[in-house]
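Revision sheet: structure tokens.
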Amino acid sequence: MLLSQGRLRQSLFLLLLVFLLASSVFLFKTGLWEKLPVPKQILAEKPPPPTPTPLYKPKPEKHADTTDNFPRAAKAASPSDLPPIPSWNKPPEPHVEEKTPLFIGFTRNWRLLQQVVVSYITAGWPPEDIYVVDNSGVMHSNQHGLLGLQNPFYLNYQRLTDLFGIKVITTPTLLTFAQLQNLFIYTSLEKGWDHYFWAHMDSPAVSDEEYEEEGQEYKSLYMRAVTVLRETLRPEYGPLAARWFAYDRLSLVRTKAFVEVGGWDTLIPFYMTDCDMHERLWMKRFVIEDAKAGLVYDVASGIDDLEMFYRRGQSKAERDEDGQTSPPEPPPPPPTPPVMKPDGRNSPAYHELLKKLDEMQRFKNDDKAGRNTWQSAQQGGQGEPFYRDGDGFEQGISMTMNFGRDVFEAKWGRGPCNLREVGLTEDDAWRVVPGWEKEEVQKKGREDREREARERLKKEQEDRKKGDH
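Predicted:
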């Protein structure tokens, strides 16, 4: 009996095992196992999904280290250690009666800034009239020497003020182009300047040493700019807004004209804000005219040694005075122009400088990567105050530029700059329908006006009927 019960239990166990195996095979083959309910305690024990971790972009390509492009200034202890300004371009003494402040805005790239400052000083602009606006957004970090040369926002404050003798204005935060232009206007109002000049930091300037007005002696770039200023001060000149030298690489601005139209529109931060400003001036019948004072270039790189702006064929006396040995007297120049001037003006060294600047300008214009690659050429500054990722800063500026284009189009209903040519006036700002020039928009506008006219007529008829009763 006991044996039979044991065999029975064994048989039942085997049957149960076969059943479980068969059921498992059936559930897996049919996929029904995925639909079976899972006990709560098993669900609770299921491991959580992995926590997302930041995914990084590829590291930016490392640029070559930036070097200072004025070695002699880097070693100089005082202004007397700098090379002398070419005698034919020295600022007048005493200063001219007119006030001639020159603003140069800076955000990044010290080599280009130093180049443009040196270019204006050697073209005769009085250093005390030059105002570099430090718009790097690093507050007083440059003034206190807290940034290194590899930092895109580095500026050598002491060299500018103590060696070159110019002035530096520090903005409290990073300003857009439109805001920076309004700062120029505001500063001029505060200082009582009826006019001011401003220059781009990537546009070095050189006196035209071959230029002579008939019957007049040679004038440096600075003195020619003063002559243009004097022309515009005459009452018969008309309602001046600006004079442009080499488009607007250098500009002369009448302060009150820009104030009268409300200054620069800061809702359009960068590109298209100049179009908006100048179109509004023209709409108010202000005059903007071209002028000439010298040679102004548009470049994306810096000359490796800025002493080239000073060493432009100095006279023998100047070379001796500067502590250099005079070379043997050169043979007489050929009688073909340009004729060498006795004091070294319009020399071969001068033409070498022009050739170099022209090559740099052509390289910028032909660069397939874009004209403003200099703005993102530096990637350093990690660990320094107000550090910003170079690529990220460039991307943010680009996004802000695109936003400004959208604002301009919303303000005037169109993207192109020629606002007056299509009949727009100052009163049309923010009042016109976006895309109003398109045929389908014009058609809808006509339909809307016709519908409104019918509705007005219907209302007038209803009002008359009510009046009759």
